[in-house]
Amino acid sequence: MQAPECLRTQCSFLPHAKLELPSYVIHVQSVQDVQAGILFARKFDIQTVVKSTGHDFNGRSTASNALLLWTQTLPNPLEVIQGYESSCGDTYDVVIVGG
């Protein structure tokens, strides 16, 4: 998500452009913030997107009418484990939030 002054500049040059902005944003400070956001999104059937510290060139860090979980200032970084094997023998990519 760009700074507001950038959006106004883009809009003035591209008035027909569709801006993919979320309806809700949680500036995540704790694991509980993430949990509350997921519960909120599930209850109201809202798409959830995650943004860390930068842009996603494929557009996965924002979406129209979505809930954005902004993890930029999360005290403990996110840890991604690829190929985590569950106790049932299934393999998943997982994210651990907040250590």
Please provide a written account of the structure:
This protein has a three-stranded parallel β-sheet, covered by helices on one side. Strands 4-5 form a two-stranded antiparallel ribbon. The chain is built from two helices and five strands, in the order H-E-H-E-E-E-E. It is about 25% helix and about 25% strand. Strand 4 and strand 5 form a beta hairpin. The protein is globular and about 40 Å long. The N terminus is likely disordered. It is α/β, with parallel strands linked by helices and about 100 residues long.
What labels describe this entry?
about 100 residues, three-stranded parallel β-sheet, two-stranded antiparallel ribbon, 2 helices, 5 strands, disordered N terminus
Continuous helix count: 2
Shape call: globular
Count of β-strands = 5
- Portion in beta strands: 25-35%
SSE series: HEHEEEE
Quick recap:
The chain is α/β, with parallel strands linked by helices. It contains two helices and five strands. Helices cover 23% and strands 25% of the residues.
Which helices and strands appear, and what pairs or packs with what?
Layout: H1 4-13, E1 24-27, H2 31-43, E2 48-51, E3 67-70, E4 79-85, E5 91-96
